[in-house]
Amino acid sequence: MLCNCAKALLQPVLVNTSKTPFRKYTARRALMYVPASDDKKVAKAFATNADCITLDCEDGVALNKKVQARLNIRELLEKGKPARKRRYELVVRVNSIASGFIKDDLRVILTAPHLPDSIYLPKVEQIDQLKIFSDYLNEYIKKNAKLGLILGIESAVALLNVVDICKEAVNMSETSKFQPAALLFGSDDYCASIGARRSESSSEIIYARQKVISVARAFNLQAIDMVYIKYQDLKGLKKQAEEGARWGFTGKQIIHPGQIDVTQEAFSPTSAEIEWASGVLKAFHKHQKEGEGAFAYKGNMIDMPTMKQAQNIMDLSNAIMIEK
Ligand code: COA
Ligand code: MG
Question: What is the pLDDT of residue 324?
Answer without folding.
Answer: 55
